[in-house]
Specification:
By secondary structure, the protein is of the alpha+beta class. It contains 20 helices and 14 strands. Residues 295-424 form the CdaR GGDEF-like domain.
Length: 558
């Protein structure tokens, strides 16, 4: 960090010159990037900004217009300040036009009452600058080392955020694109005060660049994401503006923390048996196209799972109540559940690739022969799995979902994705089972048999399963962001008014009754909604788009 003019004046070599600030005292916080000695009156053209100019004034002009122009040119180029040594050109005091011009332009003007060696001043200041840069470099190296270690160790987001807060000495918050808090560290302050009204406050903070400082809120913010897809923001709260410049240490800490979080999201860490790991590799290869169809078929056949010339059905087993605070416990739970599912498939003679696909779900690609009945095979597998899990203590609660059957390995990805989508949506719709309760809760009218299929999932479920997708969050912000921001800024409830209107089938009279408002007042609120969003609520397509966005907002917030 470069020293300020005030700090430079405190150096011994300058203090011996009896410095006195005669103008521009309010700008003594200007940073001094370099010291330049010159007697020229047109020196401004040789400067780049941030220089402290030293002169005896022997070649400065005498008339007040020229002196004002000299000061103006220094200020325009961004000089940090001007130091004039008395005794050669000016005996006891600086010319009043020079002082008035410096005060008017806010340029620090310092008079030295005693002669000093300018070379000694430049050496001292430059040594100060170099030492400050070296200290900053060492601090930056320590920051990079710390976050490299966190990345290598596969630290959880909470650990990374905690380290950011510790290094910055300020509260740190990780949020998603919907301004919901994913992790935070209050840095010893009151967590309630930090998080109270977070979404409303966060919506008011916008930065033009990827990393930026909001002076009004005192927030230093950077985007979090990788491969061109941002999925959140990392925020330092209550940071002084003087410490938040683009080259500051806090910016380095914040950006390195964001990079570590982005990298951690890309890494997958699990410990499976070699067989399960191989199955999982093949399933992932199908889902991500990382393996060719022929490669998957060849390797699966070598594992005893023929996939060519067979009917294929994707199945997802989704655990309920996966502990999110104990990563090792969750991994062990999922690992045991995966092995139990594989044992149930072997017991029932179901041919399938079986492996964990994420932190709370096990995927199956079931391979059926020409004479095998699809429903009977899935029901038999479900019954065997439930019987095996009843012996577990505590028995994990789960649900099962299946995709549509396909006749080619090239379409296997579609059935696996469909099963995962149905499972996630059904998980949102089903009541939670308590830990220790095995099997699947039966919800009348929701499904037939032991598993869910696509017809059981409707729009709310679909939006719920997409709630963490940045594209859905972006859609919600695009459709409803101005209205949410308006409510947050003015304390209104226009989102509720719009919701009541759309859920009332666009019947204004019924909506006004539902909102417990007079019709004129309700109609006025609707008009305000239209003005804020720039839409016509008489258009069906606009209302449909807004209704979907409201349902998505509910899913994201839920």
């Amino acid at each position: 960090m470069y020293p300020t003019v005030a700090e430079v004046l405190e150096l011994d070599v300058l203090r011996r010159g009896n410095p006195g600030v005669v103008a521009g005292a309010d700008a003594l916080a200007n940073r001094v990037r370099w010291v330049h000695v010159s007697e020229l009156a047109d020196i401004a053209g040789m400067l780049r900004g941030g220089e402290l100019v030293l002169t005896t004034g022997v070649m400065l002009p005498a008339d007040k217009e020229s002196l004002a122009r000299y000061i103006g040119e220094l200020a325009d180029v961004g000089a940090a300040g001007l130091v004039v040594e008395l005794g050669r050109r000016y005996a006891d005091e600086l010319p009043r036009p020079l002082v008035r011009a410096a005060e008017r332009r806010g340029l620090p003007l310092v008079a030295l009452g005693t002669e000093v060696r300018f070379v000694a001043v430049t050496e001292a200041v430059h040594e100060h600058v170099v030492n400050a840069q070296l200290a900053e470099l060492r601090a930056s190296e320590a920051v990079h080392q710390t976050f490299n270690e966190l990345a290598v160790e596969g630290a959880e987001p909470g650990e990374v955020v905690r380290e950011v807060a510790r290094m910055a000495g300020a509260p740190a918050v990780l949020e998603n694109l919907s301004h919901q808090v994913l992790a935070f560290d209050a840095a010893g302050r009151d967590p309630q005060g930090l998080l109270d009204g977070w979404e409303r406050r966060s919506r008011g903070v916008r930065t033009a660049a990827r990393t930026g400082y909001d002076e009004r809120a005192g927030w230093l913010v950077t985007a979090v994401g990788a491969r061109g897809r941002d999925w959140g923001r990392l925020v330092l709260v209550g940071v002084p503006g003087t410490e938040a410049d683009g080259a500051g240490r806090l910016t380095v800490v914040l950006e390195r923390g964001a990079s570590t979080l982005a990298l951690g999201r890309l890494l997958e860490r699990d410990r499976e048996s070699l067989e399960r790991q191989t199955h999982r590799t093949l399933l992932s290869g199908v889902l991500t196209h990382a393996l060719t169809v022929s490669d998957v078929a060849l390797r699966a056949r070598a594992l005893g799972v023929p996939l060519e010339g067979r009917r294929l059905v994707g199945v997802m087993l989704r655990l309920r109540g996966t502990p999110v605070s104990a990563a090792l416990e969750a991994q062990a739970r999922l690992r045991d559940f995966t092995e139990t599912a594989a044992l149930a498939a072997r017991e029932r003679g179901v041919t399938a690739l079986i492996g964990a696909l994420d932190d709370g779900g096990v995927g199956l690609l079931v391979s059926l022969g020409p004479s095998e009945d699809e429903h009977a095979a899935l029901e038999g597998f479900a019954a065997a799995l439930e019987r095996l899990l009843e012996a577990a203590s505590p028995a994990p609660a789960y649900l099962m979902a299946a995709g549509s059957s396909v006749g080619s390995l090239r379409d296997a990805r579609r059935t696996l994705l469909e099963a995962a989508q149905v499972a996630d949506a059904a998980l949102h719709a089903e009541p939670r089972l308590p830990e220790g309760t095995a099997g699947r809760a039966r919800v009348p009218g929701r499904r037939t048999g032991s598993y869910y299929r696509l017809p059981d999932v409707r729009l709310r479920g679909l939006l719920h399963l997409l709630r963490d997708d940045a594209r859905l969050q972006t859609y919600v912000e695009r459709e409803l962001g101005p209205l949410l921001a308006y409510d947050a800024e003015h304390g209104t409830d226009l989102i509720r008014i719009l919701t009541v209107y759309l859920t009332s089938g666009r019947n204004k009279s019924a909506a006004a009754d539902a909102a417990h408002m007079s019709r004129p007042s309700f109609y006025d609120r609707l008009h305000k909604v239209e003005r804020v969003l720039g839409v016509d609520l008489d258009q069906v397509e606009s209302c449909l788009s807004l209704h979907v966005a409201l349902l998505a907002l509910e899913a994201v917030r839920g």
